[in-house]
Amino acid sequence: MKIKLLLSVLLTIVLFSGCKESKPVNSVKDNYLDFSQRDDQFTGGIKMIPISTPVGEFKVWTKRVGNNPKIKVLLLHGGPGGTHEFFESFDGYFPQESIEYIYYDQLGSYYSDQPNDNRLWTTERFVEEVEQVRKALKLDNTNFYLLGQSWGGILAMEYALKYQKNLKGLIISNMMASAPAYNKYAEEVLGPKLDPKVFTQIKEFEKNKDYSNPKYMELLLNHYYTEHILRFPVAEWPESINRAFKHLNPNVYVYMQGPSEFGITGDATLKDWDITAKLKTLTVPTLSIGAQYDTMDPKHMEWIANEVQNGRFLYCPNGSHCSQYDDQEHYFPGVIQFLKDVDNGTFKKAKS
Length: 352
Known about the structure:
Layout: H1 2-19, H2 28-31, E1 46-53, E2 56-65, E3 72-76, E4 100-105, H3 123-136, E5 144-149, H4 151-163, E6 169-173, H5 179-190, H6 196-207, H7 214-228, H8 239-246, H9 250-256, E7 286-291, H10 298-307, E8 311-316, H11 323-326, H12 328-344
Parallel strand pairs: 3-4, 3-5, 5-6, 6-7, 7-8
Antiparallel strand pairs: 1-2, 2-4
Helix pairs in contact: 3-4, 6-7
């Protein structure tokens, strides 16, 4: 009797152990922080990538975070002449979702080479730089997502117009598709919302091209930037943002964008940039992000989402130009959902 009972127990154990669900091996989450099979383990993910330009060879700084064979997000910072430091808030959200992302300082930016040659600062050359970075990092349309914020959004759109075949997804964060439309929004909508005395003073400084006057920057910082760039008191701005502004290359910034965030001013080369007529040629899944208090018109960003062939709009009701900081509640869930939907094949075009 005891022998029969023992055999019965053993048989039950064998049967149920065979039905037990085994833990998946080599999952993305399990291997997300495993650098052991990577050629950048020695440097903690950092690579200085060689770049060929019409005026010589240079190197740009990149740093890869995590491993995910299907989702790799290359981050294009603003400026021009800014740094990857504007994106450091991503560290608080992407790793827990096992999203691989790559920090990248464009040529002329703080952690990369900084040649002093204005012939380099064109959108066309920056597009080719991004393509060289893509190839060096072995990104392709099975995994390559491009996320550009502000000037990085211009660069992302220009890259997609030429190389969308290489992309799995495109994210345009806080950037309109037309510099003249951006200037008009700043002049006719945002400017009049300022204290009339402040707005008059700002326009007087710009009329006289007195951009280096400390009073000019003080007015912008305390009355415009804290409303439309980052909606915290200046004393509460994150250290990463302060570091990014400290590291901004003014030579590149002023040459392309102009001396102020209050529109693209002076002789800036981006002043007449406009690709609104070309957006309809984009077929790659696209997320356009707009924020209520942004320097950019959120209605225009919604229009972008409907103008491209496969677009979605993400609205940040509490955000400004740096909504990756001042409206993380909406920004990151929306970005993460887009990445997962495209990856899962469940992405749907926005309703017109």
